[in-house]
């Protein structure tokens, strides 16, 4: 059965190419004009979090999976434990 | 010590991106850590050939301009975990790259990887010269066809004058990768032979990749041919070339997809 499936799968790589292009181009056409949307989102999300905790920029991972009909944006921020608030850091720096 | 390779050609459409993906994957399959970098700012395609087009968040321009850190822009391959991609920007143009920024990013990549493969844009403009700038070695992708050979000769001239190595009075290592080769047509005198191209360009031969329908299939699927179909003629040719890059001695054979009668009868595909 696997071989049979493999046989059919082998016959057409063009439909796969077509689907990949359709999804990609739909996203690219929609994105024209706000190409730095993700960079902007990252900056703003980080700014909000940094109001409350100190975040190391290197400890932030952002993943994206463009799909049809939805895409997912995954923002993975490592927050140090124990939780140190930015306000506390400022206080201890001043004191 | 990392090795930085530029995959270049001058002429467009000869197989730079396909070759970058195939060689990068073949090197990574051997367990070495590899990053493939798309320098074609504005017209990125290495992401598509690598099958990572849906996962691009940040790109080379973001890293060069300091909007993102390098680890945030690197995309780890889902099939081979020692293989990563640094995509180009699709929306900016080549002026978004600065010489200092590229130098810094290539320096950081050297620290993280064993191999840095830079996929050059076509042409001889800023994008192409920045892609070759910090290379230790160059893979010159050439088709056995007059305009491609002429453009390769031009690129060899640039490699010998515009790279960091050349400016420091050192020689940059150059390798010829002959792609889309049809040995039957070369035999019949319809196509330049390997010896002809080698004689004209006089640089050492890294490999001969035969014209193969498997190459189109690989890009349709977004799977480098050395991952998707390593046993195909082109797949074997790229794997051999990757071994030569590592310094191994591999006999130069023109690989072919020998077909049985059955696959000849049923295997005919339009694309």
Please tell me about this protein's structure:
The complex is a heterodimer of chains A (95) and B (271). Chain A is of the alpha+beta class. Helix content of chain A is 54%, strand content 13%. Chain A contains four helices and two strands; from the N terminus they run H-H-H-E-E-H. Chain A has helices spanning 2-11, 14-31, 37-50, 86-94; strands at 60-65, 72-77. Chain A has a two-stranded antiparallel ribbon. Chain B is α/β, with parallel strands linked by helices. Helices cover 42% and strands 16% of the residues of chain B. Chain B has helices spanning 16-29, 46-49, 60-64, 70-73, 99-112, 126-133, 146-162, 164-167, 183-187, 194-201, 213-221, 225-228, 233-245, 261-266; strands spanning 3-8, 34-38, 75-76, 83-86, 115-119, 137-142, 173-181, 205-210. Chain B has an eight-stranded mixed β-sheet with strand order 3-4-2-5-1-6-7-8, sandwiched between helices. In chain B, a hairpin with a 6-residue loop joins strand 3 (75-76) and strand 4 (83-86). In chain B, helix 1 (16-29) packs across helix 13 (233-245). The N and C termini of chain B lie far apart (42 Å). At the A-B interface, helix 2, helix 3 and strand 1 of A face helix 11 of B.
- Evaluate the radius of gyration of chain B: 18 Å
Helix share, percent of chain B: 40-55%
Which structural class do the helices and strands of chain A define?
alpha+beta
Compute the separation of the termini of chain B in Å: 42 Å
Question: Any idea what the radius of gyration of chain A is?
Answer: 22 Å
Structural class of chain B: alpha/beta
- Give the DSSP E fraction of chain A (strand runs of 2 or more residues): 5-15%
Shape of chain A: elongated
Sketch the major β-sheet of chain A: 2 strands, antiparallel
Give the neighbour order of strands across the main sheet of chain A: 1-2
H-E string of chain A = HHHEEH
